[in-house]
Inverse folding.
């Protein structure tokens, strides 16, 4: 069973008179000990999903759907249970460690806070654990006495990771953990996260706009666009052989150095993401899509398996929400039916 | 420099005189308390030729932004000089003002560099008003700069405020503000660092197009090696105040020779490197530049004994590999690579 199972998640923000749908039916699963990368650009709803997982969204957000953490629905959990699940069941490393740490408290005290709140530990035990956590993330124990401003960006991000691991969670949610860090520091942090997740057998969901980072770190990838997952599958194959035109655009945005094709030839995607309050008809990606067809303005595609799932390994299949990936039997104008998760692709029409 | 040499510079063919150059440039900041002064830029020769895009790459704290600021005349060098079309930069009010209309800055983070209470029109027209006051053709020139930056039709954006625009559009407004004065050189500090992956390529494409259409030269300061591969003609890799490797992008990035450049490239995702070289620790402190080669304490080639095998390990620890000269040749400041 998946440790995390998100089904048809919908999040709507109330803003003034109207309602703005930020997440419009996103779903994915995360097997125990596996790593899922969620990619997409600002405003695609990826951070909203992360916050929704632990019910951290503001009151103005209405959340529907199911978020099963170890079989328990987070959305219907009682407060006491939710408090126990936060930190210990799942914890978040937020983006921008600069702003997420309390500037006027020593980092050791900040790491100790979740431990003190969640466990009956003696002060001596707590400070020993803080020291151990700091060492795990590659900082000397005495750094517990430091204030955030005394640390570099990379060191602060290490403190954030130590804090997230303090209560030995089973799921780590990392929201842009390396954005704004230099390449070398980014490599250090990614390697650290990878090692810790492996050692502790933690599941991880990593969110980023950089598909190449996710492809290198994660087992599976989910690409989000305008509040939905538009492509999902094993990380390598999604990155190398995208089936959704949006994924293709994301994966060519960061060039492979040495590749003559991208030399003096940056790849971008014209236009901007749709206004969530006023989405286009049909496929949300249509206005920016380089291969849009006529039927794209009428069909709103949902995730559909694009490859027959390997025998006995249904989860390894791939899915994309693009009409070009629908079986040819389906003619233009017929609204696609929702795909059942992990269903083998329908038989070929030929 | 002697008067004689200066005359020779002026006599050189225009095509060979770089538009913008740093010559033996040093910028040091006074230390606080007992700390020594920070040698942010510690001896750099770097040329930008007409119609050329040069990428200045390096990690935070390596001095790349300070070097860019010095080239713009925003920072006074403690030694060496900045030259524009062969003429040394003069730091009086008037000459600086003239200089700054010909060499324009494009800042990172367009959300921070645009005034939230100015419309797009005002933001773009500001530079024009500073330099020329209100002119009759202001509206046309603002419109031209906006459409050249890819905001079309320009009139639609005149009255927009920054918060109504996407990140990519804001960056285009910032670029339009630089273009409106028809500069010869733009210095762009991390022009795409705060933008989404999909928008990044669009802005980089715009910079390339501006070079092709207007013959604009550019110095792009970045930590993003992919950006250099995407648009730059030459790359200069900076480490702790010095350029340690410089040359055509194809050579510096596709067959790097300096161990630091190699390490930077090896940690890129999808770099295909068998064993990424992850340097430990942070870039060292410019108040305490190590003796010998400034990279030696973190150098993987020295650490693994390869430098010893080549018989240069002693020099790595004691002898400064020196300052790379300007010009367009491929050069590397490394005893091992040059051995």
């Amino acid at each position: 069973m998946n440790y995390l199972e998100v089904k048809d998640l919908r999040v709507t923000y109330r803003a003034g008179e109207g309602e703005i749908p930020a997440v419009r039916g996103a779903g994915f699963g995360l097997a125990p000990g596996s790593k899922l990368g969620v990619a997409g650009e600002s405003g695609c709803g990826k951070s909203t999903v992360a916050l929704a997982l632990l019910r951290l969204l503001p009151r103005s957000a209405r959340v529907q759907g199911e978020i099963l953490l170890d079989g328990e629905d987070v959305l219907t959990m009682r407060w006491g249970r939710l408090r126990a699940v936060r930190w210990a069941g799942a914890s978040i490393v937020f983006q921008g460690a600069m702003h997420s740490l309390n500037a006027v408290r020593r980092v050791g005290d900040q790491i100790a806070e979740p431990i003190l709140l969640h466990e009956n530990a003696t002060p001596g035990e707590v400070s020993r654990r803080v020291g151990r956590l700091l060492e795990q993330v590659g900082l000397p124990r005495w750094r517990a006495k430091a204030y955030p401003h005394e640390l570099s960006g990379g060191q602060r991000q290490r403190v954030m990771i130590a804090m997230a691991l303090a209560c030995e969670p089973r799921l780590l949610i990392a929201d842009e953990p390396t954005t704004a860090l230099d390449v070398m520091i980014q490599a250090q942090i990614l390697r650290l996260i990878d090692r810790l997740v492996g050692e502790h057998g933690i599941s991880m969901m990593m969110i980023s706009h950089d598909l190449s980072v996710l492809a290198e770190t994660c087992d599976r990838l989910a690409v989000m666009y305008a509040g939905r997952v538009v492509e999902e599958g094993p990380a390598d194959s999604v990155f190398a052989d995208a089936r959704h035109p949006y994924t293709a655009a994301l994966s060519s945005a960061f060039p492979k150095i040495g590749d003559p094709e991208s030399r003096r030839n940056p790849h971008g995607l014209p236009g901007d993401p749709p206004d969530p309050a006023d989405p286009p008809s049909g496929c949300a990606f249509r206005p920016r899509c380089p291969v849009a067809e006529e039927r794209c303005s009428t069909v709103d595609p949902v995730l559909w398996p694009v490859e027959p799932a390997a025998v006995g390994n249904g989860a390894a299949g791939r899915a994309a929400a693009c009409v070009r990936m629908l079986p040819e039997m389906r003619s233009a104008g017929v609204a696609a039916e929702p795909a059942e998760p992990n269903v083998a692709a329908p038989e070929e029409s030929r | 420099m002697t008067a004689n040499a200066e005359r020779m510079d002026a006599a050189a063919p225009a095509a060979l005189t770089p538009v913008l150059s740093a010559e033996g440039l040093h910028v040091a900041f006074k230390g606080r308390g007992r700390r020594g002064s920070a040698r942010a830029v510690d001896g750099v020769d770097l040329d930008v030729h007409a119609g050329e895009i040069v990428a200045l790459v390096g990690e935070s704290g390596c001095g790349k932004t300070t070097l860019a600021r010095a080239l713009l005349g925003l920072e006074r060098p403690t030694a060496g000089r900045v030259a524009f079309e062969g003429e040394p930069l003069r730091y009086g009010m008037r000459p600086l003002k003239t200089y700054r209309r010909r060499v324009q800055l494009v800042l990172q983070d367009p959300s921070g560099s645009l005034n939230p209470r100015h419309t797009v029109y005002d933001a773009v027209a500001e530079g024009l008003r500073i330099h020329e006051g209100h002119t009759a053709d202001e509206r046309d020139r603002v419109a031209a700069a906006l459409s050249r930056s890819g905001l079309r039709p320009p009139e639609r954006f005149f009255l927009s405020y920054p918060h109504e625009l996407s990140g990519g559009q804001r960056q285009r407004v910032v670029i339009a503000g630089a273009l409106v004065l028809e500069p010869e050189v733009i210095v762009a500090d991390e022009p795409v660092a705060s933008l989404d992956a999909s928008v990044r390529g669009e802005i980089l494409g715009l910079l390339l197009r501006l070079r092709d259409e207007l013959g604009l030269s550019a110095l792009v300061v970045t930590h993003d090696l992919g950006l250099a591969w995407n648009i730059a003609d030459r790359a200069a890799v900076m480490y702790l105040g010095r350029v340690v490797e410089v040359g055509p992008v194809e050579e510096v990035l596709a067959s790097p020779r300096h161990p630091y450049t190699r390490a930077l490239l090896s940690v890129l995702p999808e770099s295909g490197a068998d064993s990424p070289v992850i340097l430990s620790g942070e870039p060292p402190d410019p108040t305490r530049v190590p003796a010998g080669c400034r990279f030696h304490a973190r150098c993987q080639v020295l650490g693994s004994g390869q430098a010893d095998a080549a018989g240069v390990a002693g020099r790595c620890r004691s002898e400064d590999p020196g300052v790379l000269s300007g010009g367009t040749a491929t050069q590397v400041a490394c005893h091992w690579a040059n051995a």
In short: The radius of gyration of chain B is 21 Å. The domain at 20-338 of chain B is CATH 3.40.50.300 (Rossmann fold).
